[in-house]
Design a protein that fits this description.
The complex is a heterodimer of chains A (288) and B (579).
Chain A lengths: L20 H14 L7 E5 L14 E4 L5 H11 L4 E7 H7 L1 H10 L3 E7 L2 E2 L5 E2 L23 H7 L4 E6 L3 H13 L4 E6 L11 H7 L1 E2 L11 H10 L4 E7 L6 H4 L17 H9 L3
Parallel strand pairs in A: 1-2, 1-3, 3-4, 4-8, 7-8, 9-10
Antiparallel strand pairs in A: 5-6, 7-10
Helix pairs in contact in A: 1-6, 3-4
Chain B lengths: L3 E9 L4 H15 L2 E7 L8 E9 L10 E6 L2 H7 L3 E10 L12 E6 L1 H7 L6 H12 L4 H12 L4 H22 L17 E4 H11 L4 E4 L6 H10 L6 E4 L3 H13 L4 E5 L1 H17 L3 E7 L16 H6 L8 E3 L4 H17 L3 E7 H5 L1 E4 L53 E3 L13 H13 L10 E4 L5 E7 L4 H13 L4 E6 L1 E3 L3 H8 L2 E8 L5 H10 L5 E5 L8 H11 L1
Parallel strand pairs in B: 1-4, 4-5, 5-6, 8-9, 8-10, 10-11, 11-13, 12-13, 17-18, 17-20, 20-21
Antiparallel strand pairs in B: 1-3, 2-3, 7-14, 12-19, 16-18
Helix pairs in contact in B: 1-4, 1-5, 3-4, 4-6, 5-6, 7-8, 7-12, 9-10, 15-18
Classes of the chains: A alpha/beta (288), B alpha/beta (579).
């Protein structure tokens, strides 16, 4: 069985020293090993941005696509071969700005994919512009007077879009992050894991210390029931989204693959595609 | 006796024009006639004038006709808008309900049949279509029992009572009109057809069917006119073969989902029209850069912007050839017949895997939506070729940290391809410039090698029937060049040109990109003058011909961009004038 080391490759990430994304990389590698995967059984599909490079830093199958489109690509992979474990990953700009439309619909569709967002509240690779996750008043190169738009709440959006798994974590808490990714991989449906992953270069406000001071960790509330949708929504609003842990999980809803008429357990990619003469004639008969 | 005639039904959208056409043409198909249909419709569901025209013939026919023999009108507007097409001695069958009047300039016979009244007497005005088609059928003097069989097939599932009512509607329509006309009209007596039922379908259905036969098992698409029938066909069929169709949130999701699925090893397509194609451009570049197979069908309609969404045009050629930023290898093929729509899908999926490139199959609205007779299709002619796809058993073991060379530099530029899941095929894929294992690289030498590798893959590509030539003259007065649905119209015009003593050759360019330069050049040399005929305003095909094959000094363009397909008479006239 593969250990987390098998999910490492010898590529040096181009992230800044201290970037929150290193922990996400490590957590994915650990979680993948912990749930018993072999590298070839995992496909990591990522978007564009600093965090989008992550698919190249994990020893598994990986596709680094175009900005904002990690989710539709990942869904295509899963539909083509449901035997694969599919992780989609990217930043808050990728998932909540340019790719927001796909995020909402991927949640609704509920394919068995784990979506990990590295949320640093800023655009890093383009050197410091505002993100939908930036706080109001946040000064960046594109908002020199401070952001005048409302901060987007991906957790509330996910909940209202019918998400079956919503979690949030913090790069500094590798243990919780690994456990949540494992839970996401084990969840039979779409899981959203938003990770506070500080940008040490361009975001001098939402720093490691700032998160430590402001986060409410649900793991400290043994009575919290993540299957209660109303309670989950309340908790998100109560904490203004500044909470970590498993926020909501619906184990009842079937994943998309299980609801598609005629879909088999065997991955489509592994099925024969040649039509028989008999099948072909039946298709032709409808046009006579 | 005549060998062909044209029939048209007109009315308000949503009042049974489509179903009248369907039942009438289905019955004709049972007798073995060749049919070619044209739909004139608007971008709305209820209301607004719509009409369907069918050409009926004892021999294969691939063009709409200039004129009209029989017009069935559900309202006065249908007469006002269409009666001018009637040939002298033509017939109008109109609903007596609106006291139909023929324009004075029209020399035709009018039969006012109480279409609505008969239908209502039988229970519902919905049966107008049966009364109208029954009356048409009777005027042609065709056997009623064949029509009744078609009715039985259409309504059989709804029970014998419904069938009986509809058969009665047909009978009453037929009886009424025969009494007025004094029997079937001699002038419209068609020669007997061969009695062999033909395949009868629209281009979009042939595309769907071809995709299933090609092994396509997934489609991701967003609804759009005139492409939606492809997804509607495939969602009915793919589940029978283990696959499915996903209706995505937009065309960007449609194309990127298709890229993901192709990457993972399943033949997957998307289909759209101009506006959707525009949204797909960035992703087409991703497929080109990552050498991921991809098949896109673009059913062209009137552009730009929302343009003329339900009308004929061929104006996306430049977008398909030049679209996406940067430089990638890409194939654009243009089916020119209903049979092409089927076989070209197998070709498209094969090409996309053999060369690991995006393939765009371009149709136009008339080819996609015109219902027509199709020659017998054969599974024996189909070979599925997956190119250099290597499966697990053929792979040798990788060392630790070693990656599979997914982008290995090879003599033909095409690298072995594995799919996720294979133990010894681990590699990375990225739209960033990369090395042989798929890892990002900005090295200048590598960049150049990789660009050359990708861009030379298609060198010398000539697909089956890249240029379909009917060029019997070693030195013709005219070479007419077309693409898509215009071929049949051009051929009809050519047969009239013969009468004028003008010799002509005709080529249909089916491989639009990369351009089949040598073949076209040779054809240009065989003509004194060249006419390039296309449904757009800026002569996009002519520009390709001139750019690649030359001949600018003798090429003239015939363009039509008013939303309607060319008529044979228009092509004839234009060619005659240019000669």
């Amino acid at each position: 069985m593969a250990t987390f080391k098998e999910f490492r490759n010898n590529v040096k990430p181009n992230w800044c020293p201290g970037c929150g994304d290193f922990s996400v990389q490590a957590a994915i590698q650990r979680a993948a090993a912990n749930v018993g995967l072999e590298p070839e059984q995992l496909a990591v599909i990522s978007g564009i941005g600093c965090s989008g490079r992550i698919s190249g830093y994990i020893n598994a199958y990986g596709l680094h696509g175009i900005h904002g489109r990690a989710l539709p690509i990942a869904q295509g992979v899963k539909l083509a071969n449901r035997e694969l474990t599919v992780i989609a990953s990217g930043g808050d700009g990728d998932g909540f700005a340019i790719g927001m439309g796909h995020t909402v619909h991927a949640i609704r569709r509920n394919l068995d994919i784990t979506y990990i967002v590295m949320d640093n509240q800023i655009y890093g690779l383009t050197k410091g512009q505002t993100s939908p996750r930036s706080a109001e008043g946040f000064k960046t190169k594109s908002t020199p007077e401070g952001s005048i738009e409302t901060t987007l709440s991906p957790l509330e959006i996910a909940m209202s879009a019918g998400a079956t798994f919503v979690a949030q974590s913090f790069s500094s808490d590798l243990k919780q992050l690994t456990a949540l990714i494992e839970a996401g991989l084990n969840h039979k449906g779409f899981s959203l894991i938003n990770v506070f992953s500080p940008c040490v270069t361009f975001n001098k406000v939402n720093t490691y210390d700032w998160f430590k001071e402001n986060i409410v960790n649900l793991d400290q509330f043994p009575d919290y029931d993540p299957t209660n949708r109303m309670a989950a929504m309340n908790k998100i609003m109560e904490t203004n989204g500044m909470l970590t842990g498993l926020i909501y999980q619906n184990k009842e809803r079937q994943s998309y693959e299980n609801l598609v008429a005629g879909f088999q357990e065997q991955g489509l990619a592994n099925q024969d595609i040649q039509l028989s003469q008999d099948q072909f004639e039946k298709l032709l008969a409808e046009f006579k | 006796m005549i060998s062909q005639l044209s029939w048209k039904i007109g009315g308000q959208q949503g009042e049974g024009v489509e179903s009248t056409d369907r039942i009438f043409s289905t019955a004709l198909n049972r007798l073995g006639y060749y049919l070619y249909g044209y739909r004139h419709f608007s971008s709305r569901i209820k209301g607004g004038h719509t009409n369907n025209k069918i050409r009926i013939s004892t021999h294969p026919i691939r063009a709409i006709s200039d004129d009209l023999d029989i017009l069935v009108a559900f309202d006065q507007e249908s007469i006002d808008l269409n009666a001018h097409e009637l040939r002298p001695g033509g017939v109008v069958v109109a609903d007596a309900k609106f006291n139909p009047v023929l324009p004075e300039t029209v020399n035709a016979q009018l039969f006012a049949v109480p279409i609505t009244k008969i239908a209502e007497e039988l229970g519902t005005s919905l049966m107008k279509n049966m009364v109208a088609s029954g009356a048409s059928w009777a005027l042609l003097g065709l056997p009623l029992e064949v029509f009744n069989k078609a009715v039985e097939e259409e309504f059989g599932r709804k029970g014998p009572a419904i069938v009986e009512k509809n058969v009665e509607a047909v009978k009453r329509g037929a009886e009424f009109v025969l009494e007025q006309a004094g029997g079937p009209l001699d002038a419209f007596k068609l020669d007997e057809a061969d009695g062999k039922q033909k395949l009868f379908m629209i281009g979009n259905e042939a595309i769907g069917l071809g995709s299933v036969a090609a092994g396509c098992r997934l489609m991701s698409a967003y609804p759009i006119t005139p492409a939606s029938e492809i997804m509607e066909y495939l969602i009915k069929k793919l589940p029978k073969f283990g696959g499915t169709v996903v209706q995505t949130e937009d065309e960007i999701a449609a194309v990127t989902m298709a890229i993901g699925a192709n990457y993972a090893g399943v033949r997957t397509m998307t289909a759209s029209a101009g506006p959707g194609l525009a949204l797909m451009m960035e992703a087409i570049g991703l497929a080109g850069m990552t050498e991921t197979p991809l098949v896109i069908v673009n059913t062209q309609r009137g552009g730009p912007s929302t343009g003329l969404p339900t009308k004929q045009e061929q104006s996306d050629l430049n977008a398909m050839v030049y679209g996406t930023h940067g430089e990638i290898p890409k194939i654009v093929i243009a089916p020119a017949s209903i049979e092409d729509c089927f076989y070209d899908m197998i070709e498209a999926f094969n090409l996309s895997e053999q060369y690991q490139v995006p393939v765009i199959v371009m149709t136009d609205l008339q080819l996609s939506l015109g219902k027509q007779s199709c020659e017998e299709l054969s599974l024996d002619k189909i070979v599925i070729n997956r190119g250099k796809l290597v499966r697990e058993s053929e792979l040798s073991e990788l060392e630790q940290h070693q990656l599979f060379k997914r982008y290995e530099l090879t003599a033909d530029g095409v690298s072995p391809r594995v799919i996720p899941g294979d133990k010894h095929g681990l590699h990375h894929v990225t739209g960033v410039e990369h090395d042989e294992t798929g890892r990002p690289s900005e090295n200048a030498g590598n960049r150049q090698r990789m660009m050359d590798k990708r861009l030379t893959k298609l060198d010398g590509l000539v697909i089956r029937d890249a240029v379909r030539a009917d060029s019997p003259n070693a030195q013709a007065d005219l070479l007419i060049i077309g693409m898509g649905s215009t071929g049949g119209t051009i051929d009809e015009a050519r047969s009239r040109l013969v009468g004028e003593g003008i010799t002509s050759n005709h080529i249909t360019i089916r491989q639009i990109h990369p351009f089949p330069t040598d073949i076209v050049k040779a054809e240009l040399n065989k003509a004194k003058k060249v006419v390039v005929l296309e449904n757009n305003a800026t002569a996009q095909l002519a520009a390709q011909v001139k750019l690649h094959a030359g001949g600018a000094d003798k090429i003239e363009s015939v363009l039509k961009y008013d939303g309607n397909p060319f008529l044979p008479s228009e092509v004839y006239k234009a060619c005659k004038e240019l000669n």
